[in-house]
Amino acid sequence: MIRARSRSPEDTRQLAASLAELAQPGDLLLLVGDLGAGKTTFTQGFAASLGIDEPVTSPTFTLAREYHGRLLLHHLDVFRLDQIAEVLDLGLPELLDSDGVILIEWGDAIRQALPNDYLEVALTFADGRDASPDERVVALSPVGPRWQARSDTLAAAIRQWAGEPPC
Ligand SMILES: Nc1ncnc2c1ncn2[C@@H]1O[C@H](COP(=O)(O)OP(=O)(O)OP(=O)(O)O)[C@@H](O)[C@H]1O
Ligand SMILES: [Mg+2]
User: Fewer CB near the last or first residue (10 Å), C or N of the chain?
Assistant: First the structure.
């Protein structure tokens, strides 16, 4: 697991933008974290780095949105569990084959049904006495050979956010 620390929404966007520079067609990212942890904020930075100018909003009520940039970005949200079947109907392997990159908010809810190659990005509220409300821990878990082969590159890409929390 590769850990980093974000101290502001802008930090999260920039960290995501650095990761997007490594994005390849067929990549799948699972965004995991409680309500308001920053999954959509992460997606906004990721999209901007792909050259997408459109505002990226939460797809909660639309299931999936598609944005055209350097790569085609599919932004999905499975917050409502009854959306799981609909998400699976979208045919994720086909989306990945068509030069797309998929980011799924609440992706852990359908982990069992996903291809076994993905990057899990877990955002958690930092705890601790001195933690600011804007602080998040960002943990990257590369799953499967496609992502494990990029572990060192991922760690290097987010090195500037790897600092220890202030004491
Ligand atoms: N370090 C941070 N990283 C990301 N967002 C932050 C941070 N600090 C504060 N915020 C704020 O937290 C909120 C995160 O909202 P966002 O919609 O990105 O979360 P989410 O995980 O997508 O929530 P939901 O589960 O409702 O989809 C925003 O209002 C953002 O400004
Ligand atoms: Mg969201």
Answer: C
